UniProtKB/TrEMBL annotation:
InterPro entries: UPF0178. It holds the Pfam family DUF188. This is UPF0178 protein SAMN05421831_1012. It comes from Allopseudospirillum japonicum. Belongs to the UPF0178 family. It comes from the Bacteria.
Amino acid sequence: MKIWVDADACPSVIRDILYKAAQRLKIHTIFVANQPIRLPQQAYLSQRQVSQGADVADTYIVDHLQAGDLVITQDLPLAADILALQAYALSPRGELFTQDNLGPRLNMRDFMETLRASGIHGGGPSSLSQSDRRNFANQLDKLLHQLTSAST
C-alpha cells in the first residue's frame, strides 16, 4: 500500500501530518506536483515532479496507483477515477470519498462551474480550520489502521 498526494493543492499543514504518518507507519508516500516540493529527508517520502499542464499530476497518479492505495486530493474528478480503480480518496478536510457521497459533490461542482462561466462568482472553499486539520488527522489514522490491518 502507498499513499499518493496530489501535492500542488495540498496545504502544508496536511503535508506535515502525512510526513509523520508515513514515518510512524513506514508507508511509502509519494507527493506528485508540477513544481518542486520540499520534503524532509525521510526514508518513506518521495516526490514525482510532472510537467506543467491541466491534470498532468492527476494523470500520473491514476496511471501509477494500485488497488488499495490511498490518494489525498480535493479534486473531485480525480477522486472519481481513484474510486473506479478500487483505491481510496481522502480530502485534506478529512472527507473519505465514496460512490455515495461523490456523485452529489460532482453535481454541485458542475453547477458552480456553470455559474462561474455565466459570470456569477461563488468564491472558493474556506481556508482550512483547526477542526478540518483534526478531522483529517483522525480520518487518516483510522483509514491507515484499517488498511494496514487488512494487509497483514
